[in-house]
Amino acid sequence: MTDSTETAGRVLWTMRILSAIALLAAGAIHLFLVFNGTGGILGVMFVLNAIAALVLAIGMLALHGRLLQLATVLSLLFLIATLLALILALTVGLFGITSSWDLMLVPEAVIVESIGIVILAITTVLVLRRTPVMPQTRRQGV
Residue 49: CB partners within 8 Å, gap ≥ 6? Predict the structure, then answer.
C-alpha cells in the first residue's frame, strides 16, 4: 500500500466512525425524549428512530463493499428524513403533531442532525468514490 492509499483508508475510517457517532447521537436524543415523557404514536416513532439509528451506526462500522455503500446512502437519507420531519413539525405540522423551538432538545436535535447530514454526505462521497465500478466488458464474437 502506498502512503496516499493508507491515508485515504484512515480518513474513510475516521468518517465512518464520525458517521456512526452522529447516528447514535440523533437516536439517543429520540430515546431520551421517550424516557422523559414523549408517548403515544410519537413515542413509538421515536423508539423506531432510535432503533434504526443504532442499526445504521452498526452498519457504518461493520459492513464493507456494496453493503457499506448501501448503509451509507441509507444513513444519509435517514438523517435527512429525520431533520425534515422535525422541520415540518415545527412549521406546518406532521401527522397532526406540531412542535415548537422551546420544547426539550429541539434546538439540539436540529444541530446534531444538521451536522450529521454534513458528515454523512462527506462519508457517502468517500465510500462511493472508493469502491471502483467494475468495467464493462464486451462480449467477444461467437
Answer: 26, 27, 30, 82
Would you mind telling me the total number of residues written for the chain in this entry?
Answer: 142
Asked if residue 110 lies in contact with residue 100, where contact means CB atoms within 8 angstroms, the answer is: no
Nearest to 56 by CA among 81, 86, 88, 32: 81
**What cell does 15 get?**
468518517
**What's the rounded Cα separation, in Å, for the pair 135 and 43?**
48
Q: 93 phi and psi, to 5 degrees?
A: 95, 155
Cβ neighbours of 103 (radius 10 Å) = 14
Question: Bridge partners of 79?
Answer: none
The rounded average pLDDT for each run of 10 residues, N- to C-terminus, in the chain (142 residues) is: 81 97 97 92 94 98 96 98 94 84 92 98 94 55 54
The model's pTM is 0.86
| C-alpha cell belonging to residue 121 | 454526505
Single out the residue of 19, 4, 9, 14 nearest to residue 73, CA to CA: 19
